Amino acid sequence: MIHHDLIVVGGGLSGLRAAIEAKMAGIDVAVLSQVHPARSHSAAAQGGINAALGNHPNGADDSWERHAFDTTKGGDFLGDQDAIVQMAKDAIPCIFEMDHWGCPFSRFEDGRIAQRPFGGAGFPRTCYGADKTGHYLLHTLVEQAYRLQVKFYVEQYVTELIVHEGLCQGVVAYDMIRGGFEAFTANAVVVATGGYGRIYSNSTNAIINTGSGMAMAYRAGVPLKDMEFVQFHPTGLRTTNILMSEAARGEGAYLVNGLGERFMERYAPKFMELAPRDITARSIQTEINEGRGINGEPYIYLDIRHLGAEKILERLPGIRDLAIHFEGVDAIEAPIPIVPSQHYSMGGIDTNMNGATIMPGLFAAGECACVSVHGRIGLGGNSLLETIVFGRRAGAEVIRFFADLREKRPNARTAFAAVEKVENTMKTLADRPATVDAYALRTEMTVLMKEHFFLFRDEPTMKAGLDKLADIKDRVSKIGLRWTGSIFNVDMIRTYELEGMIDVALTVAQGALVRQESRGSHYRTDYSTRDDANWLKHTLAFYQAGVSGPRLDFKPVTLGTFELEERKY
Amino acid sequence: MPEAIFRIKRHDPHKKEEAPRWDEFKVQYEGENLTVLEGLFYIQENLDGSLSFRYCCRASICGSCAMYINGAYRLACQTNVRHLTGNIVTVEPMPRLPLVKDLVCEMDDFFAKYEYIKPWLIRNSKDPDREIMQSPADRHKLNMPVDCILCGCCYSSCPSVWGEDNYLGPAALLKAYRFEVDSRDEARRERLPLFANERGVYRCHTIMNCVEACPKELSPTEGIQWLKKAAVRRRLFGRAK
């Protein structure tokens, strides 16, 4: 048994930022991560991070109020406005702090941080480092964590929360390098494990983004909020769904269909290619569905050739490399074949704006959490901002939580029991003759999510999908391990994580079926308008043991700053 | 359906009685492309569940899946089997690093050396209320070193590392360069003594394996030579840049 006052699960931007905040206040903090923190999926973010710095020549009139308004409207008014205002205000000092810590942002001629236009924003507000902003931000926080000597436990796969009498008191983890399971006790846990993209077969996300942290919290009784809102990015590479940043369109890229038309003219005449992601993604899918893909095939082109080699090499070198390596296309000479792809999880562990959940001692931040600031679509550049702003706020909240904490010793018996429970689960998986192929089942589920819960949703399709998911959940009890070794057992992790993925998928599916309106990313062909009278509320999904799907409940949205208006671009 | 033959080096050093061996697998795939990483997943899912390898982003930015493929350092995710010559894909862990199992190497020393050179921006003056100004020309100097993904290819490929366990190696030194060359960095004596010695930059004999090995096409050698010059300049004139 290992003890630290604070355990952070996940070493991406949110987790590191929370850990750094706590460490700077002198708290004994450790980060547990399935991969070395520098390998976290935050690194794959490309386009940028929003803050109303007003550095751009066209951005002098920008302000945090405008940033908050654009975010609220972009989220189709389902974001909590107090949290949005807080994020827009915090953004500015958070970006300067990242600069002071060495983040290599691109620069304007006058030496200030460069900003570019992004979808749904009234001003060029997105700070960037070429098209590798996530990589730069992540390495900056990894460096700061090393400077502050934050303790890392690397390649520890966390399987379970330790909960004693309603308090979160640590986690159980599989040590991938040395083998075996260990209890890490703590007085508080921050979950920062990122999104669940991999429950879809067509995700831009890293292979480790399976929603494991959400599944852990959910099973421990903490509700997941607004899970039906899934962001589909307009531009993933055709064959691999690897992200082609919105920065491309920010810099002036065209979206072109099989007839050679810039079809966004029909869908968002004012914003064109820089309409918010949900509208752009649906527009692309409509072109494909109506037979106007390239040569009638289900993809269209992202064309940046007219930007010229110099600008491409300066501003978009990363996506050029990716298109060369993964699609065999040099974007300087040819258009890039793209499809809409699952990208971001707007829903997540229900938290307040300080990362606190309903369970004392359990906090969450970043993509695995739902504050909610994105409302129903994440505006590009706001998700990176969310990780840093709310990672920091969660760290600060833990400091306050510790100041009030009376009982400071986690219960050892509960911790040992939690380890034993995980060991028994693994033993069951190991002993069971696998009559169902775990990997075939995974594929079945991920394809199903794409086919039944994608950009255009309707009741019969979703009902059929939900039935299939329930059946998959039944069959998951018949999977087993192929290999039972203790060292770096990839099979064990991927088999174990499947059940959590199915539970998360069920919350997405159930929420989508119940919400009889169209709002942001959740678009229903049978209820095609926003319905504020009935649905201006958050969905909460509670885990129910022994039943396939969640119990749903609702809670009000925090309004009060901005008036509701129709969302038009 | 197209097919690729994978020859994979297997070893579990915890099993003292077992010697390293080569296993051969037939990997079937649809369409035109198969990356080595996709091939490894196919094997792990369908043919041999005991195969161990690192994976994460599958988009050549996280640095997890650095391996030795057909005799060259590559990221498994970035390597299309169609671009390899010959019919057989041979996959080995990065040579000369301690082995955890199969294709997974121990990276503890690698990250210890990274940490040793103080890989963070060192500031002595008070931070401004806004960003620290930096000209595009000064920012341009960072373009190469900030793209390092810490995959370890250069470190594994460097004969000076093979010959001297205490040599910091190309990745850590490239990181030192990344900060020393940054106009915002104010380190004077904090970092220099860590790399301007026989375990640091002077152990580099410009063999340039690192340049050839880097899957991001970076040049650690360039950074190391800059550090050598900076170290000399600082001793002669008291300033690096």
Can you walk me through this structure?
- The complex is a heterodimer of chains A (about 575) and B (about 240).
- Chain A is an alpha/beta fold and about 575 residues long.
- Among the domains of chain A are: about 230-345, Succinate dehydrogenase/fumarate reductase flavoprotein, catalytic domain (Flavocytochrome C3, Chain A, domain 1), CATH 3.90.700; about 430-555, Methane Monooxygenase Hydroxylase, Chain G, domain 1, CATH 1.20.58.100.
- Helices cover about 35% and strands about 15% of the residues of chain A.
- In chain A, helix 3 packs across helix 11 (about 380-405) and helix 5 (about 210-220) crosses helix 15.
- Chain B has about 240 residues and is α+β, with helices and mostly antiparallel strands.
- A five-stranded mixed β-sheet of chain B has the order 2-1-5-3-4. A two-stranded antiparallel sheet of chain B has the order 6-7.
- Chain B starts with a strand and ends with a helix.
- The model of chain B has no long low-confidence stretch (mean pLDDT about 95).
- At the A-B interface, helix 3, helix 4, helix 10 and helix 15 of A face helix 1, helix 2 and helix 3 of B.
What is this entry, summarized?
Chain A has 569 residues and is an alpha/beta fold.
Fourth-tier CATH superfamily name of one domain in chain A: Fumarate reductase/succinate dehydrogenase flavoprotein-like, C-terminal domain
CATH superfamily of the largest domain in chain B: Alpha-helical ferredoxin
Kindly state the number of beta strands of chain B.
7
Structural class of chain A: alpha/beta
Most extensive contact: A-B, 60 and 62 residues
For the sheet with most strands of chain A, the description reads: 5 strands, parallel
User: Gyration radius of chain A, to the nearest Å?
Assistant: 22 Å
The radius of gyration computed from the alpha-carbon positions of chain B, rounded to a whole number of angstroms, is: 21 Å
Order of helices and strands of chain B: EEHEEEEEHHHHHHHH
At the first level of CATH, what is the class of one domain in chain A?
Answer: Mainly Alpha
Describe the global form of chain B: elongated
Looking at the overall shape, the CATH architecture of one domain in chain A is Up-down Bundle
Say how many strands of chain A there are: 21
